[in-house]
Design goal:
The chain has 218 residues and is α/β, with parallel strands linked by helices. It is 41% helix and 18% strand. The protein has a seven-stranded mixed β-sheet with strand order 2-3-4-1-5-7-6, with helices on both faces. Helix 3 packs parallel to helix 4. The longest helix has 24 residues. The N and C termini lie far apart (48 Å).
Length: 218
Amino acid sequence: MMLNRLSRRCFSTAAPQPWLFVGLGNPGDKYRGTRHNVGFELIDAFAESQGISMNKVHCKAIFGQGFVGEVPVFLAKPQTYMNLSGESTGPLAAYYKLPLNRVLVLHDDMGLPCGVLRLNDKGGHGSHNGLKSVIDQFRRNREFPRLRIGIGRPPGQMDPKAFLLQKFNARAQERIDTAMQEGVSGLKLLLSRGLTESARSFNREQKYKHIRLQTMPT
């Protein structure tokens, strides 16, 4: 019954166009709390803030759906493992017939200081294998928005792969906890104001945070 009501609201001519938010990560307890899984964490934080249950499996993803105000929202955490994230993201976008500018990918980013966020309307994969898989599934189209979640760079000569699969220390976890709250606010802003306006406002605030944090140790 709930699904039918959602579908009627979602696809009526007067309803706003839906958004699909896809958080990238690896499934299983082994990877919970690691740097590579912050995309999953932000999806969970947003779902909890909006009372959306992530209790379905759809297109190889843990999946939830609901409304934020009048805007239909689909939330997904692909269970394909990071490097095959596109095998879930592509079919989800196709299933709901969404243009790529309504598919937001949430992912970790070593190019940003830990806890700093950026909302972008497009971009490359930056050697992120999960993003690369999504781009491949979109037929090399990079014109989809993404919310980048800074995790910082590996210290010294540490292997980046080992760094990604490591859990945060206490100081870094505090930054990530704050970033999750800011990310939820950013997603709500996106749904109420649209991508262009929300990105301008959100990124301005995060820029000041970037300047403040980039020289601080994690």
